[in-house]
Amino acid sequence: MLKILIRQISLGFYQINDDLVLSCKNDRLGYKVRRHLNPHNDNRAFLSNFQLFEYWQYRKYLLRSNSFRTIATTIMSFKTPVRKIKPTRRSVSGYFSFRGKEPTPYESTLERDFVMRMDYDRSVEQVVSQPARLFYIDANNIERRYTPDYLVYFTNPMRKPLLVEVKEKQELESDFHKLRYKFSAAFAFAKQNGWIFKIYDERRIRDSMLENLQLLRNFASRKVNSDIADEVESALERMPLPISVRRFTQRFNSEKKTPGIRENDIWRLALDHKLELNLYEPLSEETAIVGVNHGNF
Questions:
Q1: Do residues 162 and 45 lie in contact, with contact meaning Cβ atoms separated by under 8 Å?
Q2: Phi/psi at 26 (5° precision)
Q3: Whose CA is closest to 200, among 3, 13, 10, 53?
Q4: Left if phi > 0, otherwise alpha if psi is -120 to 50, otherwise beta: which for 135?
Q5: Given this model, what pLDDT does residue 273 score?
Q6: Looking at the predicted structure, is the pLDDT value of residue 62 above 70?
Q7: How many CA atoms lie within 13 A of 225 on its CB side?
Q8: pLDDT (tens digit, 9 = 90+) per residue, 209-258?
């Protein structure tokens, strides 16, 4: 059981957290898990308070019985939503223009931010909203309906698609005793289809990279001359990388003898993936250009 619980960390069902402690009915098992992840007992690494022991017992029951069933309507490729998102007063809903082509719906700002991250990720090929409809049995032995938020396909055909549920951290903590039943069904359904199921909260979505992507999107309407863009790519290929935005613009413009490119042009080219920036640090003139790409998506 200890190996199973530890393995679940790699599947992304829960994360090590600084302010939460594992809550298990089996105190001895909980102690073993905490010691495995925090052998020095330094009080810094704790697990989420999701009821993991109960969850795994229930998941084993699900995989051995017919206590859940799945319906994908007539669309077996899972490329089209099975449910339409309607406006709601409880949260923000709308559409995100994925790669400027596909309007991808969202039902919360956290879902919107998730799609934004997938939009910029070059390894992602497609994001399908509301990809499948599942039915499961809850704690009261009542059949419930559940539709996961997204199914992510990757450009690498060897990489398994990712079935995703986006939930606020607060909701996960307060309602996990109810949510765990639908999550169990999603885990089993993903395994059945050769996918991976993961739960994304704000800790996996809202970080410095997302902040930088939001800043880059402010330059989406800016136009960069195609000839200048080609010259920038050629110049970067001749230079040792990484190089800061400030140093590159200075060298490029000194060679051109004219103010050929500005910092804002760099942000626009980065948004189009013409060049790659280090987006794990706040954007500034000292941001490193780490790579060059030919063409956008």
A1: no
A2: -90, 95
A3: 13
A4: beta
A5: 87
A6: no
A7: 7
A8: 999 999 999 998 999 988 888 899 999 999 999 999 999 999 999 887 66
Q: Beta-strand (E) ranges in the chain?
A: 16-17, 46-47, 68-71, 94-98, 102-106, 124-129, 133-137, 143-146, 150-154, 162-166, 196-200, 243-244, 275-277, 288-292
Q: Look up residue 180 and give its amino acid.
A: R
Using CA atoms, how far apart are residues 143 and 140, in angstroms rounded to an integer?
9
> Domain limits of the chain?
1-49, 66-206, 220-292
C-alpha dist (Å) from residue 112 to 102, 141, 205, 206, 221: 14, 34, 10, 11, 20
Fold of 66-206: Trna Endonuclease; Chain: A, domain 1 (3.40.1350)
Residue 115: is its pLDDT beyond 80? yes
Q: Measuring CA to CA, which residue among 180, 188, 291, 184 is closest to residue 232?
A: 291
* Side chain identity at residue 277, one-letter code: L
Distance between CA atoms of 119 and 117, rounded to whole angstroms? 5
Reported pTM: 0.72
Give 31's contacts (C-beta < 8 A, 6+ positions apart). Answer: none
What amino acid occupies position 84?
Answer: K
Burial class (CB in 10 A: 0-12, 13-18, 19+), 144: middle
Q: What is the pLDDT of residue 71?
A: 43
Q: For residues 179 and 170, is the Cβ–Cβ distance under 8 A?
A: no
SS3 at position 63: helix
Between the alpha carbon of residue 6 and those of residues 63, 179, 199, 201, 248, the distances in Å are 19, 21, 16, 20, 46
- Burial grade of 194 (CB within 10 A; 0-12, 13-18, 19 or more): exposed
End-to-end CA distance of the chain: 44
Q: What is the DSSP letter of 218?
A: G
Q: In the block, which residue shows the tokens 């490193």?
A: 288
